[in-house]
Protein 1
Amino acid sequence: MPIVKEKFKREKHVYRNEKFSELLLDAVRFFHGTPVLPLPPEEPFKGAGVYAIYCIARTGIYKTFGETINRKSYSVPIYVGKAVPTGWRQNRNIGSENNTTLFNRLRQHAESIKAGKGLNLADFACRFAILEGETANMVAALEAAIIAEHSPLWNSVIDGFGNHDPGKRRVTGKRPQWDCLHPGRPWAMRMSGEAFSVPELKRRVTDYLMGVKCTR
């Protein structure tokens, strides 16, 4: 019997579930209630999940974070990301409790900040939520929800902080915006492609911080 092709009706393809929305909101609330720790955390730990990095600098181009935005509490992250184990896309629940993926990612970010010009690692802290078992399936959704909530600077305005070394084959590529503004990561310094305008990147930072400051 031949397959019958139906006429497209959008309503037959739309999935909604209020329970999922409530669960995601609960996860966001839990995330914001987790303790804030140094970057990187002092002790290694196992697990994968979602994290946020906060800036409390009182000098330099990010001083508005320390002087105003995050002066009383860690309110607005400068970057949000996720850390998942190898093979997560193929089978998300295997191995998520038996690796140090999240800790390693935070440690990598700390090294990037240490290498970046104009940054002081002591001006940064982090919080994170470890998602295990079935809740590991929510990693991407939780990350997206927190990014949408805050539009973190290094996610939305200055791109490239979370980039990995692209390898020797891409040394002719364009240096990420973050590395143009904060040069120092060895792999990025080797990239010979056209660089972004530093004055323009600084203007974007100023405009962003002014916008956040005005909404508080």
Protein 2
Amino acid sequence: MKAPTDRRPRRVPSQRPGPEGGKRDQNRQEQVNRICAAAAGLMLAGGIEGVTIDAICRAAGIAKGSFYRYFADKAELVAAIIEPLATAARAAIATCEASIVAARDFDALLAAYATFVMRLAPVLVAERDAVQLYLQESRAPGVGARAPVRALADEFGATAERLTLPAQAHGLLRALPASVTGRAVVGAVERLAFDVGAGAIPLDPAQVGAALLSMVFDGLRAGPP
């Protein structure tokens, strides 16, 4: 299975043959993408724990020894598969967090979150398999090769809680436990994203995100509805 050419660059081993960005380095990046694409397809069908490294090597068309040139184990491979999602989400949060914290009225808060959705939406399309794998496995125990997925899920939950607090402090959102409301929103976002990726909701991710934001914030908005 050949990796799509629009995939975002993934990390490669620190020991590089030749200069970064050179032909040999590009070849290594292509090989990493090829392994990630093959593994993601198998894991979506059989689950992370149900797929062996031998099966991944067969699907990627490489020898097992070649696999260990790029990844120490399956957990490191899973981390590489979901890395574009993690990187895009962190970048979107970093870009929008200042606006969320600075919001003093509800329209400004809604606009900040809408910007976040718009910045994240492209990765849902460009990295569909990686996103679907994360969504499929993010509720499983954080052990074994699933550990990177669960760690990212926990990070998203904690971030949602943290970003809820300034809006509550400014009187924009109801004073409900942020640990509950933040994670509830993340859960709704992830379920909708999974359904969009699976084709169950035939809408653009940005449209789905805008609808969800309106529903969620109308319910959490401070003061009379």
